[in-house]
Amino acid sequence: MRAYMLPAAIVLSIGSATLAMAAPTTTDGVIKSLDMKTHTITLADGTAYRLPKGFTDPGLKVGSKVAVVWDLKGQIHEASGVSLLKS
Predict the structure, then answer these.
(1) What's the rounded Cα separation, in Å, for the pair 84 and 67?
(2) What's the structural domain count of the chain?
(3) Are the C-beta atoms of residues 65 and 83 closer than 8 Å to each other?
(4) CATH number where 41 lies
(5) Helix/strand/coil for 2
(6) Quick one: which of 8, 16, 25, 29 is 20 to 30 A from 51 by CA?
(7) What InterPro entries is this protein classified in (predicted)?
(8) What does the pLDDT look like over 48-71, one tens digit per residue?
């Protein structure tokens, strides 16, 4: 029985690390530029996020403070949601 515990523990620790890396990240910032034709939003820190297809604009405009929920897909920051924050 003990012989199976160590390999099982190793597999579980590797699996949990993978899940932690796959979790979406939330970033707060101020909109520097917004391009709905290319579905991108750029925050004041210079990071650009690609908005999802079918994104419904909640009234975004340059200078608005937002929270962006995103995942890194290769070199692209894929946003899954953007919400306005109160100033």
Answers:
(1) 6
(2) 1
(3) no
(4) 2.40.50.320
(5) helix
(6) 16
(7) DUF1344 (IPR009780)
(8) 999 998 888 889 999 999 999 999
